[in-house]
Design goal:
Blueprint lengths: L17 E7 L2 H11 L4 H4 L1 H5 L10 H14 L7 E9 L8 E12 L4 E10 L2 E11 L5
Antiparallel strand pairs: 1-3, 2-5, 3-4, 4-5
Organism: invertebrate metagenome
Keywords: Lyase
GO molecular function: (3R)-hydroxyacyl-[acyl-carrier-protein] dehydratase activity
């Protein structure tokens, strides 16, 4: 069982185990992420600028979806205690303010010697994959 302090242990994991996290992107999310990351690109913050781009409107930071993947792994599955080792991300489509991003993670491989779990990581808006990637996390053990 996962609570705010204790996630799953390496011994609890099985191939195919899944976790889900969802968040609707708000104006505040975009502004706060720009402040935290230092990424003030006008495609994220300036509607007049964004109208002249291929996107025709402002888009969310790609790394914001990456942060939602981190949130899914930290709070849903595997949960508190897992430590990010690597993450690959492919940004396949833009994400906009008011879009609901659904993150799905799934255990794909387990390394018992290193206590690593490899997870497929995907972000969806509606039925469309907008971010695709893979993460490796170091898992806590019971001993």
């Amino acid at each position: 069982m996962i609570d705010e302090l204790n996630g799953l242990y390496f011994e609890d994991l099985t191939i195919g185990l899944k976790g889900v996290f969802a968040r609707t992107i708000t104006e505040a999310d975009i502004v706060q992420f720009a402040g935290v990351s230092g990424d003030y690109s006008p495609v994220h913050l300036n509607e007049e600028y964004a109208k002249k781009t291929r996107f025709k409107t402002r888009i969310a930071h790609g790394a914001l979806c990456g942060a939602y993947i981190s949130a899914c792994m930290a709070t849903r599955m595997p949960g508190p205690g897992c430590i990010y080792i690597t993450q690959t991300l492919k940004f396949l489509a833009p994400v906009h303010i008011h879009d609901t991003v659904v993150v799905r993670v799934e255990i794909r491989a387990l390394d018992a010697q290193k206590k690593f779990a490899t997870l497929a990581t995907r972000c969806f808006v509606d039925t469309h994959v907008v971010v695709d990637g893979e993460a490796v996390v170091l898992m806590p053990t019971r001993d």
